């Protein structure tokens, strides 16, 4: 069964460093998403991406964040200068289309720890 | 008032029990209601979705929506230890952003 994969599973970084989180969405999916989940808190939407551009973003997704689809398979989230409060699980998701009934499939997540 | 409220638990039940998980919400524009299951250190996995009010059944799982009360439920019959996970409700509105708004999740423990 096709699935979303994410690497690395755990990333530890120093405050102020740049990190890139990687995702491989399901191959025939066209819409891609990043969410984060701070420990003990709810899953929060960051950004959605379609046709090589951002289609929607939340207030959390500020200038420190960027997304890219560098090739036909990868989808990345970059945090330019990490802060302690960026420590969270980051989930990538993908869906075939962007309709209320289209299921988003989530990856296993990357745990980001900022020291 | 938070958009989606969900008791984090934990909820601990014996194997075979009927489990009731609930969420309340404040945004009357929500029309699409989802339940996700999240095992420890895994991403959320969609269990069920319903549109507008009513019930939907899938095996041991039943999702119920009461839009008049802004209240949704997930019932698990004959609960199994393998059902132990965090259950997230999520909802979205038609005609605007389809991005789901999640609850905090309820941790369920089913003990043998």
Structure notes:
In chain A, 0% of the residues lie in helices and 50% in strands. Chain A contains no helices and 11 strands. Chain A is globular. In chain A, 36% of the residues are buried. The mean pLDDT of chain B is 91. Chain B has 112 residues and is mostly beta strands. Chain B contains no helices and 11 strands. Chain B has strands at 4-5, 11-14, 19-25, 30-38, 45-51, 54-58, 61-66, 71-76, 85-93, 101-102, 106-111. In chain B, the strands form 2 sheets. In chain B, strands 2, 4, 5, 9, 10 and 11 form a 6-stranded mixed β-sheet that branches. In chain B, a hairpin with a 6-residue loop joins strand 4 and strand 5.
Secondary-structure-based class of chain A equals: mainly beta
Order of helices and strands of chain B: EEEEEEEEEEE
Question: Per DSSP, what share of the residues of chain B sits in E-state strands of 2 or more residues?
Answer: over 45%
Please write the string of helix (H) and strand (E) elements of chain A.
Answer: EEEEEEEEEEE
Structural class of chain B: mainly beta
Question: How far apart are the first and last residues' alpha carbons of chain B, in Å?
Answer: 38 Å
Shape of chain A: globular
Radius of gyration of chain B: 13 Å
What oligomeric assembly is this protein in? heterodimer
Total beta strand runs of chain B:
11
Low-confidence stretches of chain B: none
Q: Mind telling me the C-alpha Rg of chain A?
A: 13 Å
**What is the overall silhouette of chain B?**
globular
* End-to-end distance of chain A: 37 Å
């Amino acid at each position: 069964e096709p699935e979303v994969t994410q690497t690395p599973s755990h990333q530890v970084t120093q405050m102020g460093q740049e990190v890139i989180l990687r995702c491989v969405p399901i191959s025939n999916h066209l819409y891609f998403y990043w969410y984060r989940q701070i420990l003990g808190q709810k899953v929060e939407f960051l950004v959605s991406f379609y046709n090589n551009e951002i289609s929607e973003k939340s207030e959390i997704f500020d200038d420190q964040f960027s997304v890219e689809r560098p090739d036909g398979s990868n989808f990345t989230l970059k945090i330019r200068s990490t802060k302690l409060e960026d420590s969270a699980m980051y989930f990538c998701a993908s869906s075939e289309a962007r309709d209320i009934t289209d299921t988003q499939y989530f990856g296993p997540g990357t745990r980001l720890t900022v020291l | 008032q938070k958009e989606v409220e969900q008791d984090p638990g934990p909820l601990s039940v014996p194997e075979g029990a009927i489990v009731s998980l609930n969420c309340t919400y404040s945004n009357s524009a929500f029309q699409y209601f989802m339940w996700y299951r999240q095992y420890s250190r895994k991403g959320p996995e969609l269990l069920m979705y319903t549109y507008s009010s009513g019930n939907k059944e899938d095996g041991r799982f039943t999702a119920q929506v009461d839009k008049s009360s802004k209240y949704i439920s997930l019932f698990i019959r004959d609960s199994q230890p393998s059902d132990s996970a965090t259950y997230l409700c999520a909802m979205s509105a038609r005609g605007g952003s389809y991005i789901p708004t999640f609850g905090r999740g309820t941790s369920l423990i089913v003990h043998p």
